[in-house]
Amino acid sequence: MQSWLDIPQNSDFSIYNLPYGIFSYGKKKPRAGVAIGNFIIDLKRAYKKGLLEGIKIPKKIFDAPVLNDYIRLGKSVHRAVRERLQEQLQDPTSLLFRYQHKLLVPMEDATMHLPVAIGDYTDFYSSEEHATNVGKMFRGEANALMPNWKHLPVAYHGRASSIVVSGTPIRRPMGQYRPNDNEPPVFGPSQMVDFELEVAFIISRDTELGERIPANHAEDYIFGLVLFNDWSARDLQKWEYVPLGPFLGKNFGSSMSPWIVTLDALEPFRTQGPVQNPPVLPYLQTEGAHAFDIHLEVAIIPQATTQETVVCRSNFKYLYWNMAQQLAHHTVNGCNVRVGDVMASGTISGPAPDSFGSMLELTWNGKNPILLQDGSVRTAINDYDEVVMRGYCQKDYMRVGFGEVRTLLLPAE
Amino acid sequence: MQSWLDIPQNSDFSIYNLPYGIFSYGKKKPRAGVAIGNFIIDLKRAYKKGLLEGIKIPKKIFDAPVLNDYIRLGKSVHRAVRERLQEQLQDPTSLLFRYQHKLLVPMEDATMHLPVAIGDYTDFYSSEEHATNVGKMFRGEANALMPNWKHLPVAYHGRASSIVVSGTPIRRPMGQYRPNDNEPPVFGPSQMVDFELEVAFIISRDTELGERIPANHAEDYIFGLVLFNDWSARDLQKWEYVPLGPFLGKNFGSSMSPWIVTLDALEPFRTQGPVQNPPVLPYLQTEGAHAFDIHLEVAIIPQATTQETVVCRSNFKYLYWNMAQQLAHHTVNGCNVRVGDVMASGTISGPAPDSFGSMLELTWNGKNPILLQDGSVRTAINDYDEVVMRGYCQKDYMRVGFGEVRTLLLPAE
């Protein structure tokens, strides 16, 4: 597909992508948009100009400061919009071409916002390499993976209120930790703030309490994916998490990328996930390919430099449990989901040591500090470090990317 | 205080209480109301009739199907409304008296709804007796309490979407459990569905991400309290919960009572909580009394009988950690809270064996089945059992109660 619009060849936001986000510009209120090259299509204005005529979209859907009501319209609408925009982007006689100065907003003029109102946030733990690494460090080689791990996609509930969009700084959390196991805990700024490289999916359909989503239909309930940095304070988490799981070690903030890449855009990059052995219970069995080949990387940019160091290169396809299985499991007990819910993958580590998705693993619990381009070393994230996660799919000429999730860590206050 | 309205002497909803809820009747849409005796004051109509004149309440606040915007108005408004209603209930020349046939809806004609839109739900674990009982059963006497337990109010995030109001049936969850530790897990209906007797508080003020709520101001952020049944599937939970905590064992449903009893109404029942030893860190220290003397009980009503058996009598004041400490801890890392958030206490067990707040503890993991009035025995909740929780405060003539949270357990489907 060729567009009359100048789309840089390496752009994450090619005509094959068309991800959704919420943006504002000038004095305009936040509204829905679609990313294309270095521009954002203002969907509110596009709708008014008749660009989407014939597609069943109620008035004012694109005025909302979140995408939930648009997402709720369903995949047939999303597909029709996607096709329409692709047509308009190719046709030099289209309305989009004619009104481009009104409808296309340069990204550099826009501020991005959280794209959805999030009801509940669930965090899975679906990377075998990550779970094994953590297990080895804290429980030893023999008991690295818990007995339940290969039977169900382990998960816990996280905090929805503290999920923020890329660009929002996060403050180093205060809290309790115990430097010495034989002494009482102390209170102060966390000494071990870490990132976790994750990808999250956004729910597109409500279910009723008591309803189950079958694994082979689960993707119908997924609107799209974002990059997700599940910030973690390792010292707080270590002291607090027994027996009910992570709490203050996680809920001081999680960062997500602003553009939701739809499953339709990711379709060409579908691939087989790892073989599951032992076989999973019937309700978790899926047919076909349910993994996606998404290249992921994490970079650290220290204060007072623009020099970044890529510390991790991983891939979404490494995950042992796929999204369909995660969602089937989440609802097998009748737990209901709602449009806008966020379900994150858990840290995505690969087999190679430079593919581990957290500083905890990359430095092997601090034993192997990482040398950055500016000569400084890290075992955790420093104040004023910026952490940037990026993700993209590439197949020949076709590129579908996520942009980035970028977060500055501020000192404790 | 004497009212012209006939309020039964043992009513939970005395003139000293005036709790808030959301109700509907006839073909009317859900709206805000205040319980008094066997009636509900329709706040939407009361506002229109000028009953609340002079109090700063924006129009349409009482039209909303949830209380969040009313709660957000702040304690000064809530207090003014409370005093105004108490005046009107005492004065036989008042507007409320004059329009009583329009403004007072018989409870028996009303349907209650979830009173707030819940952003996030947190469940604490603040009863020393409960944590000790569970610890003894699963880890033995010596390691009953975890090392962190007396240093911080342990908590985890729960699922907000599956919180339902009293009267909503809950379905027995399906899921994985492992009957034999040496064999693979099986899939089927949970064999051990249990209640957990809890009390939850509702947040009344938003905070910003990065903001901390000091313990001695924490009650300013609490609107009021409800009874809370944190339904638990013990077998699912046992298999899934390591290492990240409870998930499907809890999120198939939690039930709350429909009336939010304000902290102002509970003020006369304030009392000292347990002595905390070792001393807690400064950010968790509170001055004065922060416990509340609320009698609690749980009854089971088997199918095909109206005969109930009270299986547990406990008290909110037994909790080791008070609400101010819980909220100070929750936000000490900068985690933000939002109006309508629900924070539950965790199972409230007392010192006596008949005060334990779950079947797990009451039957000591099934070893001592409970005999019900109808001659049947229980180690867990059966299909079509109704579980009823009640709570009230009493001091001389003054009674402030919560009503009940009542839930029917339906069979797995």
Structure explained in plain terms:
Two copies of one chain form a homodimer. Chain A has 413 residues and is α+β, with helices and mostly antiparallel strands. Chain A folds into two domains: 20-113, SH3 type barrels, CATH 2.30.30; 121-410, Fumarylacetoacetate hydrolase, domain 2 (Alpha-Beta Complex), CATH 3.90.850. Chain A contains ten helices and 26 strands. In chain A, a hairpin with a 2-residue loop joins strand 25 and strand 26 (398-410). Chain A is globular and about 75 Å long. The mean pLDDT of chain A is 97. At the A-B interface, strand 7, strand 10 and helix 7 of A face strand 7, strand 10 and helix 7 of B.
Give a quick precis of the structure.
The first copy, chain A, is an alpha+beta fold and 413 residues long. Chain A folds into two domains: 20-113, Fumarylacetoacetase, N-terminal domain (SH3 type barrels), CATH 2.30.30; 121-410, Fumarylacetoacetate hydrolase, domain 2 (Alpha-Beta Complex).
CATH architecture of the largest domain in chain A: Alpha-Beta Complex
Poorly predicted runs of chain A: none
Please identify which CATH superfamily of the largest domain in chain A we are dealing with: Fumarylacetoacetase-like, C-terminal domain
The portion of residues forming beta strands of chain A comes to 25-35%
Whole-angstrom Rg of chain A: 21 Å
> How widely separated are the two ends of chain A?
51 Å
As an assembly, this protein is homodimer
Shape of chain A: globular
Mean pLDDT across the residues of chain A is 97
Give the largest interface: A-B, 61 and 61 residues
Number of strands of chain A: 26
